[in-house]
Amino acid sequence: MSKRSIRRIVTEIIVIGILIFLIVFCVGFRVTKVEVKGNQFYSDEEIKKMVLDVPAAKNTLLAERFINTEEKTKEEALIDRITIKRKKWNTLVVQVREKQMIGYFSLNGQCLNFDRQGVIQIITEEPIENVPLIDGLNVKEAKQGEKIKGINKKRLNTILSVGKMLEKTEQKPDRLVFNDLKQLVLYYGSIEVNMGTDENMDEKMNRLIGILPQLEGMEGVLHLENVTEDTASVVFDNAAAEENSETGQSAEGKNTDANNSEEDDGRDISDADSGEETDSSEKSHSTDQGADPQNSDSQKKDTENKGASSGDSSDTGTDVEYSDGSDSAG
């Protein structure tokens, strides 16, 4: 075989190899499916149009390596980062990381949503899901892209600090309010959580995260104002309790019947406080009976009624105990 023939055969093999490679590259890695994940403020189509409007987006290998998503999203206020990954041969996964909104406040009938730096990122007509209302800021003027102005700096720092902690939780409050005492109050449906000042706020949030699941379906006030690392229990005032009931229960996890000395899960129930109140009530009535025998029957009934109410499971003062602060964080 002549050298010319060998050269021609080699050339043909190379050409065929190149053709096969091109076919595999163009057809085998052709984008047939795009999955968009992590987007809340933008629709799937908006994200695709934002980063996949280039020829390279038709091929999974090229899209993964050569699309500069940072450049394409630099003008988008709510985009933190977008990454593109190839899944198998023909599927692209566009992972979106949007900027988290700490909360929003109302101004001129609009919702001004701000991020963890206190910068107003987006203005909407309706509240965004899982973004709580911050009430009581009294902001007079605000612009998109600028930091919130016109409120106390310490108060703003408290909101931002609590907002960052709430990012780690699944259950977000409906609203955050500063009361007349300039103390922070969180509202979860029918549950009011008094946080007090910003002192020991990390510990208060840890306790809140641990306690909230136990209060599902209830209504009342959870007192965290004075919580420190050494606090063993906190008080939950159950609004569904009888108005005249002033007894306290002590439970490690949740409200339980004070008549039971021990739950199946090992939580101890203490009704010492209610016992003391009952004893003092009985002593008081006993003294009155001696002074006025004519009212002895009615006073005895009052004492029995109060003694019965001390064992009611719907007490207004419920102490939720913890072995230490870390346990409450779950």
Please render the helix and strand layout as text.
Blueprint: H1 3-28, E1 33-37, H2 44-51, H3 60-66, H4 69-72, E2 79-87, E3 91-98, E4 101-107, E5 110-115, E6 120-124, E7 133-135, H5 153-166, E8 175-178, E9 184-188, E10 191-196, H6 201-211, E11 220-223, E12 233-238, E13 248-251, H7 272-291, H8 296-309, E14 317-321, H9 325-328
Parallel strand pairs: 1-3, 7-8, 10-11, 13-14
Antiparallel strand pairs: 2-3, 4-5, 5-6, 8-9, 9-10, 11-12, 12-14
Helix pairs in contact: 7-8
Strand content: 15-25%
Given as residue ranges, the uncertain stretches (5+ residues, pLDDT < 50) are: 246-316, 321-330
Mean pLDDT: 75
Distance between the termini: 80 Å
**Major sheet description:** 8 strands, mixed
Query: Cα-atom Rg, whole angstroms?
Result: 32 Å
Helix-strand sequence:
HEHHHEEEEEEHEEEHEEEHHEH
Class from secondary-structure proportions: alpha/beta
Number of helices: 9
Trace the largest sheet across and list its strands: 7-8-9-10-11-12-14-13
The counted number of beta strands is 14
Helix content: 25-40%
Shape: elongated
